[in-house]
Amino acid sequence: MTPVTYGKIYHSNELFRHFSNERAFVGKKICLMRLSAIGDVCHAAAMVTRIQTHWPDAELTWVIGKVEYQLVKLMPNVRFIIFDKKQGKAAVESLKNAVKGETFDALLMMQVALRANLASRVIKAKRRIGFDWARSKELHWLFANERVAPRQYSHVLDGFMDFADALGVPKVDTPSWNIPVSEEDERWGRKQAEALGDYVVIAPAASKAERNWLPERYAETADYLSQQGKSVILVGGPGELDKTTANAISAYKPSIKADFTGKTSLHQLLVLLKHASLVLAPDTGPAHMATTVGTPVIGLYAHSNPIRTGPYNSIDNTVSVYDACIEKQKGKKWEQLPWGIRAKGDNLMKGVTTDAVFSKIKAVL
Asked: Could you state a single Gene Ontology molecular function term (predicted)?
């Protein structure tokens, strides 16, 4: 197949017409660039699993963030190149050395951030596939020679699947994930699960405090779950916001059986999520991690549209006031606004009531 040249940018549908007598994609030496964050890496992992399922002989290289690597590092037949953005120019130089002398059949540019776009210049590829015009930001389009097909109102995961479509990978009805953990972490998780019994996970902290639900409402919900015969545990990362959020909840002395905040690796956390009967979380990584292992999630949303960023298999379980918030702020429904626009404000999560959450818990459990 003749490689796509830098002189002309083809839409992926045009590629099928342009190469009407050839397969959409023959080469299978593929590099994907998705550095962060945990939730997005979960979505990208579904696309990687799709490629590996249908093209088991594909040579996959994933340029990924330092923390996010810890979640997917045991995925089989994937070569990972860690890009530590804190290192600045040194990180770019390290990436350049890692791919020196290589030319990929395709580079999947799955991150629109300018930092990632600039770093991608050191990666040589016949096809540099980026997002369509509507999803291209921060000059993303300048660094690609091909775009995925446009899609309206897409979940982030579906947007990532567009890259597999552009390669010609057969479609799947539902996504699947192959994110292995070590046997040691699996045993640790099973031991915790046996001690906890039938338990629900509350992962209360998002990356920004404004996206967190109120501590007293988390506490009230923990007591409600306990009344339903469930053990309740808190989980979270080692960051200061995670710890202060967990402490603020614990100050109300709710029925919390264990607090694992800052005490687990990502793989240990994944096993805890797998054995839970339910996860309650705002817009945060553990919600998407739980999705990868088949655990239902009740997502709490106000700032972002759960149709776009909610836990993929539990969109119907979300408790969201996003629609009302965005219409109040913009004077229009979200369907009339640019896709993915966020509502702004420090107190929007107050609109998520405990009654609405209790009702959803009843429905899910």
From this structure: ADP-heptose-lipopolysaccharide heptosyltransferase activity
Query: Which single residue is written with the structure tokens 């009843």?
Result: 362
Set out the domains of the chain in order of their start, with CATH numbers: 10-167 (3.40.50.2000), 183-364 (3.40.50.2000)
CB-CB contact of 143 with 120 (8 Å): yes
Query: Residue 283 and residue 299: Cα distance in Å, rounded?
Result: 7
Q: What is the 3-state secondary structure (H, E, C) of 118-171?
A: HHHHHCCEEEEEECCHHHCCCCHHHHCCEECCCCCCCCHHHHHHHHHHHHCCCC
pTM higher than the cut 0.85 = yes
Cβ neighbours of residue 65 under 8 Å, at least 6 residues apart?
Answer: 35, 36, 37, 41, 82, 83, 84, 85
The Cα 323–Cα 319 span in angstroms is 11
DSSP one-letter code for 237: -
List, for residues 91-137, the tens digit of each pLDDT value: 999 999 999 999 999 999 999 999 999 999 999 999 999 999 989 98
